[in-house]
Amino acid sequence: MADVLGKALLEYHQGKYSEDIKTYSSLDEEDSIPLPYLFRSFEEMPALEQKALQMAKGKVLDVGCGAGSHSLLLQEKGFQITALDQSDGAATVCRERGVKSVENCSILDYDKDKFDTILLLMNGIGLAGTLKNLGAFLKHLSTLLNPNGQILLDSSDIIYMFEQDEDGGYWIPNNGQYYGEVMFTMEYKGQKGSPFPWLYVDYNTLQNACLANNLDCELILMGEHYDYLAKLTVK
């Protein structure tokens, strides 16, 4: 499978920036991920991410770490942090940028250590892929927590992307799927990656999934556009 994200991150890191990553989804037209945004400073991060970094404690696992911007900020503050990403290119960039502990694998294949904080930022819970897989995904994350550990994640309720009628209800396609399940494809410099499922989960649905998997779910902060930061702890 082409590591489209990794290739783009590596080239940006090497000073060869000429274009951004294009994304195609089952929801809308073509969009893009600006590469500089993946290398952003604390000041450039949205309030939800800033708040999550301020709440981090103890040993930290940064899941889907990308270029390692969150990991580096916490490492500079003295945290013992492990950055994890399935993308080979992302893992290489993290190492080259100075992240001391980097794991290059899927979070579902990881079981080496336990942590006080697990970060799933930039909608990292999307890695669960589908609503059906969310329970097993949360269960696996729970096994990686130390006693009194926490999972900090942000996500969005993408209901706003559907048409609204006069009564304020939304027209959601009745295809048996949860409306937050999206298929994505990334493209960089003419090379397309394989399509992958991604999950945006509204807060109530996340709460219910937590309830079913012995987790407490607390709403920490609402963002400006249907997004939120939540803190999960084992009951």
UniProtKB/TrEMBL annotation:
GO terms for molecular function: methyltransferase activity. Gene3D superfamilies: Vaccinia Virus protein VP39. Keywords: Methyltransferase, Transferase. It comes from the Bacteria. GO terms for biological process: methylation. InterPro entries: SAM-dependent_MTases_sf (IPR029063). This is Class I SAM-dependent methyltransferase. It comes from Flagellimonas nanhaiensis.
